[in-house]
Amino acid sequence: MIKSYSFLILVALLIAQITSCASGVVAVPVAYADRRSSEVIYLDQKIEIKAILETQSINEYDNLSFVSYNQTVLITGEVPSEEVKQEIENAIRNIEGVKQIKNYLHIGSTSSLKSKAADVVTTSNVVSRMYIKDFESNLSPIHVKVYTERQEVYLMGLLSTKEAEDAIKIAKSSKGVKKVIPLFEIDDNYINKY
């Protein structure tokens, strides 16, 4: 059993490496191109890890996901009750550095493995389509964090109004997307040099 997990992890890392070196794309260090400061990028990663650790004891059988972007935490997944949903949000609120919480937990049974796999494919599809410049857009996929849960696509990032509109348009027209939930921070002073 352990060997099969190791193999899956190895395959996932290989795929991640290959997709990060997409043909025709010049590799730019993500931290350099990111609009967040290095400190905030580090803090976001720290918040995600702490969120996992802080919520493990609440209900270990829940399917929980945490995405932190610019100190705003997106919570998705499934929990059995409104009480558990609120308890998880309170635990996240107590993590140092969290400025805002977007709680999209669904009350109900856990998503199937097939549904989770479809979500991964949908996220990959949306991100890859952001690299394709099929209409007038200065949108850089580096500036958009895409996460999918139950075929609902969550979009986070620090974008201009035009970039946000383009990201939403791309996500809505992508295969497998039932709903798009934009959670952007809009600032029209951002000029994309991608």
Notable traits:
7 strands; three-stranded mixed sheet; 2 domains; Histidine-containing Protein, Chain: A; 6 helices; 194 residues; alpha/beta
Task: Give a short overview.
This protein is an alpha/beta fold and 194 residues long.
What does this structure look like?
With 194 residues, the protein is an alpha/beta fold. It has two domains: 38-107, 2-Layer Sandwich (Histidine-containing Protein, Chain: A); 111-194, Histidine-containing Protein, Chain: A, CATH 3.30.1340. It is 43% helix and 22% strand. The protein has six helices and seven strands, in the order H-H-H-E-E-H-E-H-E-E-H-E-E. It has helices at 2-20, 30-33, 38-55, 82-93, 113-131, 161-172, and strands at residues 63-69, 72-79, 100-107, 144-149, 152-159, 179-182, 185-186. The strands form two sheets. Strands 4, 5, 6 and 7 form a four-stranded mixed beta sheet that branches. Strands 1-2-3 form a three-stranded mixed beta sheet. Helix 6 links the parallel strand 5 (152-159) and strand 6 (179-182). The protein is globular, with a radius of gyration of 17 Å.
